[in-house]
Amino acid sequence: MKKIFSIMLFSALFLMSCKSPQKESTPGEKFGEMITANNPSQIEKVVGLLSTQDSVRTQMKAKVESVCQVKGCWMNLVSEGGNDGEMFVKFKDYGFFMPLDIAGKSVIVEGVAYKEVTPVDELKHYAEDEGLSQEEIDKITEPKEELKFMADGVIIL
Q1: What is the pLDDT of residues 14-54, one digit of tens each?
Q2: Is residue 155 over pLDDT 70?
Q3: Beta carbons within 8 Å of 108's beta carbon, 6+ residues apart
Q4: Phi, psi for 153 (deg, rounded to 5)
Q5: Among 129, 112, 5, residue whose Cα is nearest residue 57
Q6: I need a labelling partner for 131 at 20 to 30 A (CA). Which of 2, 102, 138, 150 fits?
Q7: CATH code of 62's domain
Q8: SS3 content of the chain, % helix, strand, coil (to 5)
Q9: Which domain holds residue 141?
């Protein structure tokens, strides 16, 4: 009986140790395609370009406002200076994810900025991923035109 209990205890401890915690982000860490900072635009400039164009390929520097808390599959960027500018970022081919602890940090992203109307069900899904309350999620009733960014690569600053 003691042997069975010991085996069960060892198995439980082993399985618990296999669950790897979310890795913390480090400055200079790169994700996706290996990009090099090359005089990135501020988010306000890119927002301005999207007022006259449907899309623009660019490199942009911004602050992470929020990140998907389920697996890091999206992030929301805002202007570093607190000016107008907000952009929802996804990652090319769903090929990489961001650490969950990067809210408040600055990043450089390279890829394509564009405008898109996001349907209500998708907006609610992102709100759930962000950890918003059910009350806040239920307030989402209209599709929203958003500025989005499909990132090929990201550098954490």
Answers
A1: 333 333 345 678 889 999 999 999 999 999 999 999 999 99
A2: yes
A3: 35, 37, 40, 59, 60, 61, 154, 155, 157
A4: -155, 155
A5: 112
A6: 150
A7: 2.40.50
A8: 30, 35, 35
A9: 27-156
